[in-house]
Amino acid sequence: MKRIAALIGRTALSCWHHGSPRLPPPPAWAPGPPSTCLQVRHLAAKQNKGHFKGEKFKSKSVNLEKQQKQEVEIKQRMTVSELAKAMNKDIDHVYEALLNTDVDLDELEPDTVLEEKWIKEAVKRSGMKHKWAKLVETKVRENKDIQRQPPPDPTQLVPRAPVVTIMGHVDHGKTTLLDSLRKSQIAAQEAGGITQHIGAFRVQLPSGEKITFLDTPGHAAFSAMRARGAMVTDIVILVVAADDGVMKQTIESIQHAKKAKVPIVVAVNKCDKPQADPHRVKEELIGHDVVCEEFGGEIQAIHVSALKGDNLLELAEATVALAEVLELKGDPAGLVEGTVIESRTDKGKGPVTTAIIQRGTLRKGCTLVAGKCWAKVRFMFDEHDQAVSEAGPSIAVEIVGWKDLPSAGEEILEVESEQRAREVVEWRSYMEEQDKLKEDQQAIEAKQKQHQDSYKKERESTAHLSWRQRRAAMYRANKHKLTHRASEKTETEELTLPVIIKGDVDGSVEAILNILESYDADDQCQLDVVHFGVGDISERDINLAETFSGIIYGFNVDANKSIQQMAAKKDIPLRLHRVIYKLIDELKEDLSSKLSPTTEENIIGEASVLATFDVTVGKKKIPVAGCRVQKGLLDKKLKFRLIRGRDILWEGSVTTLKHLKDDVQTVKTGMECGLSLDNEELQYKPGDEIVCYSESEMKQKISWDPGF
């Protein structure tokens, strides 16, 4: 016992001297330290170093917790809301973290600026660690875009052929006029049938002058294509039917020409018809500031018959005469500049564009950029699908060699190498992405502002309360929302029609999408364009339609037999059309089919209650109304309604309908009858009105009006 007590005493003393946790001094009866003090110090040292297993595991777990702590970026003069956002918590969490501190929570608002020590304290109490935010300098990316060249030296310019766009209302004879001009040109060259590979062709007059014609559709849907044609042309030929006069697209074509500051030549077509009145047409044009020469203006008006080919040469000569006045010149040297008139995907050639060359000379091997696409020119073709080696100013050609399909209206610029083309395309894609990010950020900020405004409005009623009282009030207000589990929440199913749009050329797809942009019946059924593109219907389109349960609409495109079979097997509707308004009409029908039918009520007869009495059936008394039919008839098979004053008391069916003592099926106007309803608790009163009506389901129609 003495040895054990001595060991305890020496251990305690050793611990006392070596800075271990304080222990009470040794008792007075404990003997002095023997010569074994070294061993005791060794034990005390081991204990002091913390080599026990429990302390070892404890230190490891503490280190692990430190590693797992969330880091919060802080800065000077942070507000409560900024700190909450940095911690990824709500504002009330910051209030709770600052409980039992010197901060006056009742005076604390979301925009209150916190001192540095309280910022750190809130982070520490939240089980996180802070780090100071670093200022990062963003490097400005070098602009790699390409621009048009400066204007050429006037001494280097050479005369060029005029580019003429034929415009006008639908069915006024533009296509017939173009075909007549094409036929005359093909006959002169002894070539075969008429080709329509591109919407541009050249005509050479007997005198040797050449004219490049561009075609534009006359339908209301193709406004963008007409505007594009006016912007790249030198002269506009406005075709107006002599028997129809100035129409909607005629006026629009005049506006496009004036906006582009392009001179007009009027072609009064269909003059061979008996009801033709060219003079009236010219008078109507005056109302739109198009004054012909015979009325003292400067605009030439040629009377033609596209069907018979009358006066076509005079029209071409008038165009050449106007071109001579304009003194049109071009620069055949330098880098190529042009405009994409149309673009499409060809099965054999791949992406193909129709372009008007405006500067330079395009040759095989040139590297071009248009929008976010680039090309190494492999082949060029004219309007007769004949390969050409070069194309100068005012010449329209098909260009083959594009990596992607550029949009119609894009500016074509030549670059020195493929690497430079890639740089330009990458830069333009980057800038488009940045613009989209800005738009998204603006949308997010607008949504956040809307949320903040609604949050402030919600808290106005509790502004006089402390934050504890405010939180309790908000909990009580939102308590009912917490009673539903996430799995029990139901969303209202909105009607949606997913569609896939395919067209023969880029302009056709653009026209259809422009029409769809006018869709304004989202409250009835949402229209969702999941994909659009150029080319025939493909297997990818079928798979997309299957994924989204959508419908495929094709304009001037085909679907081969295997694609049709695949669509039929997967129950995917294919809507293929050659006329754009028929495509839109079928789209409207498909939208209407999504809508639930409405119930239409038809009043069959009306009767007034003259008297009431009870009839005993077995042991029950049934109330009966004695009525006279005032209008129409009462039919026992139909539905009935009891009206008192302006209130509807009951709706249902009649159990008994009698005339005198006979059960009848119907009672006509002027006849009296007795009837009982399927609700025996109802009490009739003289003067009540009983209405007999039928209900029929009516199909709803979509309210969207595309304008044609």
UniProtKB/TrEMBL annotation:
Coiled-coil residues: none
Keyword Mitochondrion: yes
Domain Tr-type G positions: 159-329
MF GO annotations: GTP binding; GTPase activity; translation initiation factor activity
Subcellular location: Mitochondrion
Record's keyword terms, sorted: GTP-binding, Initiation factor, Mitochondrion, Nucleotide-binding, Protein biosynthesis, Transit peptide
Region (Disordered): 441-461
Keyword Lipid biosynthesis (UniProt): no
InterPro entries: EF-G-like_DII (IPR053905), IF2_II (IPR044145), P-loop_NTPase (IPR027417), Small_GTP-bd (IPR005225), T_Tr_GTP-bd_dom (IPR000795), TF_IF2_bacterial-like (IPR000178), TIF_IF2 (IPR015760), TIF_IF2_dom3 (IPR023115)
Main location: mitochondrion
Gene Ontology CC entries for this record: mitochondrion
Cross-referenced Pfam families: EF-G_D2 (PF22042), GTP_EFTU (PF00009), IF-2 (PF11987)
UniProt similarity note: Belongs to the TRAFAC class translation factor GTPase superfamily. Classic translation factor GTPase family. IF-2 subfamily.
The protein's role, per its UniProt record: One of the essential components for the initiation of protein synthesis. Protects formylmethionyl-tRNA from spontaneous hydrolysis and promotes its binding to the 30S ribosomal subunits. Also involved in the hydrolysis of GTP during the formation of the 70S ribosomal complex.
Stated name of the protein: Translation initiation factor IF-2, mitochondrial
Organism the protein comes from: Culter alburnus (Topmouth culter)
